[in-house]
Amino acid sequence: MAAGFPTKSNFATGDVLTATQMNDLAGTVNLLKPTAKGSVFAASAANTPYEVTVGADATVLTADAASTGGVKWATVAGGGMTLLSTTTLSGTSTTVSSISQSYVNLLVLVQNPYVSATDTLRINPNGSTSSFGSKVEGGTAATSAAVGQSSGTIQTTSTPTDSGFFLMLNNYTDTTYGKTFFFSGAGGALSVGAMVGGIWRSAAAVTSMVITTTGGATFSGGRVLIYGVK
Q: Which of 3.40.1710, 2.70.180, 2.115.10, 2.60.120 would CATH assign to domain 81-229?
């Protein structure tokens, strides 16, 4: 039996610990204490305590047979959104490249875009402007026309609460099937909100997003945030 534990596991009324057992306890178990803030104790084998030092902030203790103590600190798995990038809009087109491939869906949020002259904003995965099949709310089916893209009117107003768009693109890393999407938003106090849903007919994994104006107007302000969704 490992040092630090009495060799007699079941005691009856009237039993006492021997001096050897007491010394074992006093010499080992009483000294079994964390060496750092946040440490916890597991076991590396039967009757063999093992100290597991604290992990990084926001990690959780999880079972792991390959670890010495049978547990480890790990990042929480499962759902949720992670902010991947924040980019300021500029020029007539802004590209966000090297998008992580570690998520299931992408949420693209364009906050307060405004331009030098009223124009149309588009969010194009991989810069593609074609292969969209969609249906505008209350409208008719489209293939590659403007209404088939994630687009909406943007105006010159700089009021932060007047303008915003989002695009949800599903299963964006898939290299076999098209990707369903939903787009919505409004580009100024006078513009009508756009709502478009459909499919981007491409088997390419999405690694970049291009936020652009179609008529050549220059972005005067705004930013794009891209979230990975699990």
A: 2.60.120
